[in-house]
Each structure stands twice: as C-alpha cells, then as structure tokens.
Design brief:
- The strands form 6 sheets. Strands 4, 5, 8, 9, 12, 13 and 16 form a 7-stranded mixed beta sheet that branches.
- Helix 3 packs antiparallel against helix 14, helix 4 crosses helix 11 and helix 4 packs across helix 12.
- By secondary structure, this protein is α/β, with parallel strands linked by helices.
- The chain contains 14 helices and 21 strands.
C-alpha cells in the first residue's frame, strides 16, 4: 500500500454532504437531537465556577479522584442495544477495530473489543494532553534561560560562554517563525536577546552554547517512517528547540511569501540545540553583540554507571534573564485542535522526564501508566513510543481512551479539558464534521488518521450534566475507510439523540428506532459543555487559521 503521510486534512465538503445524506437516509437523523442543527456560532468563550478558577491561575489542580464507575441503568442498557446494532451492521470487514462507550459517570455502556490493543494514530494526543495537565497543571509555563559561564568586565566583555538553557519549551520561537506560522503559540526568544543586551554584555570572548538539561537520547522515536521528516510531519525532539524544530532561511525556492518573492524556506533541523544556538546568536549579532567563536550545540551527554544523564547547568554560571511560554493549557489546546505532532512529542518526553525521571523516549510508557493509575485506569499492555501517535509501534485500547475522556470531563479540570478539544462543525480537525446536524458544538474530541488507521475519541454533551464518552479505533480498514467515517458519525448522532430523549427506548428496531418529531428541545450548547471563564483563551496566537490540517505549513 502506498503509505500516505500521517496527516488529517479536513474532509472535502462533498464527502461531508455524502456522509450526511447517507446517515440521514439510513438512520432517519434529519430530525436530529435538538434545535441546534443550524447553529454556526463558536463555542462560547469560557466561564468557570470559582472552584475551578484556581486551576487557571494558581497551582496545578488536584487530580480527579478515581472511584469505581456505577452499574449501567436500564436506560443505559437500551442505549447500548442501539449502539450494538450500529456496531453489528458496520461494514468494516477485514479490519481490526474497537468501539468503547462510557456514560457520564464512567459506567460501561458498550465495549466492542474495547480492550484490544490497536494503533491509535493522533487520538493518542488526548492521552498526552491528559498526562501533561495532571503532571504540570494547566497554568504551567516552560522556562528558557540565558546564563553567562565566565566573567563579565565592567566594559561589557564576557570572557567565557553565553549559555542558552532549554527547559523543554516546545513553542520557543523567533519572529521569522511567527511570520511563517502566525497561528501557533510562541515564546518570544527575541525578548531573551533583549535581556542579554540590557545586562550590558557587548563582546563575548567565547560563543553561544545551546544546552539541553532536560532530554537526552536520539531525537527520533521508534516506529517513525523516514518520510515523516521529509513531509514535516515529525521533527527531531529536544529540550532546547526553536521554531518547532525547523531551520528557517531566506530564499526563493518554495517561498511562502505572497507573490513568489523571496521568503522563508524551512528544513527539519538536524540538531535542534545547535539551531537554537544559531538563531539566538543571530539575534544578538543584530543587536550589536560580537562573538569570538561561532555558536555550538551542547557536547555529548554524560554516561554514569551505564546510564545516560542530561547535562546540568554550569555550576558557576549566573542568569542574565529568562522567558516563559504561554500557559500549558493554551499550548495543549493548539496541539489538540491542530494535531501538532512536534508539540505532542516534546510534551510527552518532558512529562516522562518529570514524572518518572527518564529523559528518553523509553520513559513515556511508564509515565503514562502512572498518569492512568492516578485516574484509576488500568492500561494493560499499553505501549507508547511517542506523544503524537505517529509511531507504528504505539498500542492503546479504545476503552482506555474512553475512560480518559470520562475521567477528565468529570473532574475539576473539566472546563479546561473541554476548551482544549476540537469541536464538531466549528474548530480544529473536527471543524467540517457533522455540519448541519445537532452535533455541532456538542461533540468535543480528537481525530486520528494514518494511512491504515482511523480513530475518534471524545464526548457528546447533553442537558444537565449528561454525557457519553466515546472512542473508536480502526486498523487496516482498507477499502472500508469510508464506512468507518459513516460509523463514527452514526455513533455520535445516536448518543446525542439518546441524551436529548429523541430515541425510542422501547424498540431496537434497527437504525430507524427514533421518536420522529417528538424530540424535546435541547438546552443551548453553552449550557451543555463545561465552560472556561470569559477572560479565557482569546489570544490571537491560538486562533485557528481558516484551513486546519494536521501538519505545519510546508515552506
């Protein structure tokens, strides 16, 4: 099979219309599950209750307290029968697939091969986001520092090196990168250059050294294809990275400026630490600082008792300044909505270094297992090689993904979690999904696509605190890929209909078991979905561009 790059472009409009017609014709969903079918406004900018406000402004929120899920109710059992019917008639012959549905309190509604271990593709990013929130808290900010390792004279001459110390920040960026990709959140590296100049340093009898004391080991994960780098779907991962691991230069080939004039050309950085040092050096040169030697990346890591250790900050160095990233929840929102692989892979590795003390790729699985244990979830057989879902070696069950959705949606982080998701018909990789249906604004989640993998995980919100949490993973679908999308649409709409009382619970007479036009009116979406405070995420850097695809723009 020709292995297409692991990208999730928004499906063409004709496909959406065909899917909607097929669902309407076979399921009778034109009556929907509420009066929201024509809703086009975005999910309202957040509000939060005072008990959650601290999660956005102070220390990390307490983790959700795990407790055994309740037994399914009679209504749950009947809903499960409807969902089971959809599963039974799904035409995905030859595929390995699983469906898992949980109720609002985490109770099992249905598990169809829910514990089977499958490739998750980008649905893995939901687990990465959960791990980051529970490890650092939503307001965590990554810190990058400039330090002098030497003596600074009264005249502003540094005899020694200027050390750029990474802190695992995945959004450290230059103004040139912002010109290239303005929608992406960014930590302003130029502000750190200004701090160095403000300190009085004018001449450096040494060089800029890019130091990564956070991560060690190879920059590429196991199970990645070479073409992932060629197509900008993957980057080499390090704890000191600038411009998303892209080395930008000015040129005319493949220019991204309007009119074909000379513009920015990018290539995946061979050594992110060295690229960061070069970019920082160029900023300082532009500000009048002079160097005796060219910038370098850090030396090889230290090996102690057979274990590779990250290099520490020079003990006698002193700080000239630091810059901090936007809050973590804004970075995670962009990661989920745009399915940004470099963000996910960096964050997963930083979580592993912090949570289990392993600064290599091998630390991700035990770190994620630890996070899931904190949520009361037992992930038997979980294998995670990266944070993005690109690796062919990742194995996750649909039940784990659904349980994560249930746990986060029910805990104190629920408003943050909801704001971070893609939204059906409105934003992120779900922005073209289920348009013209009542699912718009009410299904929040994450998609996943590789050439032979389709995935979906998220939450359908209903009146009050009602909800269903869903995960679908399909491997090796082949020619049935289109049928997988129809199944996903049908599952979301069926669960929404059940939440709104639009389903005939007395009959499981196939796909037509609906209560016609007797559907009660639903509450407005902003009363169904947990909301963040009104002063929440309104920064321009996190607004989705008009065309959302699961990759950075190729220069």
């Amino acid at each position: 099979m020709n292995d297409r790059p692991p990208v999730e472009p928004a499906p063409p409009r004709v496909h959406i219309q065909l899917t909607a017609l097929l669902v309407a014709a076979t399921v009778g969903l034109v009556v929907g599950f509420g009066p929201l079918a024509n809703r086009t406004s975005p999910v309202p900018v957040p509000r939060v209750d005072p008990t959650v406000q601290g999660a956005l402004t102070d220390a990390p929120s307490p983790s959700p307290s795990p407790s055994p899920p309740p037994e399914p109710t009679t209504a749950d059992t009947v809903v499960a029968a409807h969902v089971r019917h959809l599963v039974n008639v799904a035409d995905v012959a030859g595929a390995d697939w699983a469906v898992s549905v949980r109720g609002a309190d985490g109770q099992v509604i249905l598990d169809h091969h829910g514990d089977d271990l499958l490739m998750p593709a980008s649905t893995l990013k939901s687990l990465t986001a959960a791990a980051a929130l529970l490890t650092f808290g939503p307001d965590h900010r990554f810190r990058t520092e400039a330090r002098v390792d030497g003596i600074v004279t009264a005249g502003g001459t540094l005899v020694g090196n200027l050390v750029l110390v990474g802190g695992g920040d995945p959004v450290l960026g230059s103004p040139a990168f912002h010109e290239w990709y303005p929608a992406r959140p960014r930590t302003h590296l130029e502000d750190l250059a200004d701090s160095v100049v403000a300190s009085g340093v004018r001449v450096v009898f040494g060089r800029v050294v890019g130091l990564d004391p956070v991560l060690v080991g190879p920059g590429l994960a196991a199970g990645w294809k070479d073409r992932y780098l060629w197509d900008f779907d993957a980057r080499r991962i390090a704890g000191l990275t600038v411009d998303a691991g892209i080395r930008l230069t000015r040129g005319t080939a493949l220019a991204v400026t309007a009119g074909g004039e000379e513009g920015l050309v990018g290539a995946v950085a061979e050594d992110p630490r060295l690229t960061a040092a070069h970019v920082f050096e160029a900023m300082l040169l532009a500000r009048g600082v002079r160097f005796a030697e060219p910038a370098i990346g850090q030396p090889d890591p230290v090996v102690v008792d057979g274990l590779t250790e990250a290099l520490g900050v020079p003990p006698r160095s002193r700080s000239l300044g630091a810059v901090e990233s936007p809050p973590l929840w804004r970075i995670l929102r962009f990661m989920i909505e745009h399915s940004d692989n470099q963000l996910a892979d960096t964050i997963a590795r930083v979580v592993a270094a912090d949570r289990v003390g392993d600064p290599t790729w091998a630390g991700i699985t035990p770190a994620f297992v630890d996070v899931l244990a904190e949520l009361g979830i037992e992930p038997d057989g979980l294998a995670v090689e990266d944070g993005s879902g690109l690796s062919r070696s990742n194995r996750v069950s649909a039940s784990v993904l659904a349980e994560v959705q249930a746990a986060l949606a029910a805990g104190e982080l629920a408003p943050v979690w909801a704001e971070m998701q893609a939204v059906a018909g409105e934003r992120g990789t779900l922005r073209t999904w289920l348009r013209g249906t009542p699912a718009v604004g009410r299904f929040l989640g994450k998609t996943g696509t590789l050439d032979d993998v389709k995935g979906l995980t998220g939450t359908v919100w209903g009146p009050g605190e009602t909800a269903f949490h869903l995960a679908v993973l399909v491997n090796d679908a082949g020619a049935a890929r289109g049928n997988v999308r129809v199944l996903m649409d049908q599952l979301v709409l069926t669960l929404g209909a059940a939440l709104d009382g639009c389903m005939d619970l007395e009959s499981v007479g196939g796909l037509g078991a609906w209560a016609g036009g007797a559907c009660p009116a639903s509450a407005p979406t902003d009363q169904l979905v947990p909301q963040l405070p009104s002063e929440g995420p309104t920064d321009a850097a996190s607004v989705a561009p008009p065309d959302v695809v699961e990759r950075m723009p190729v220069p």
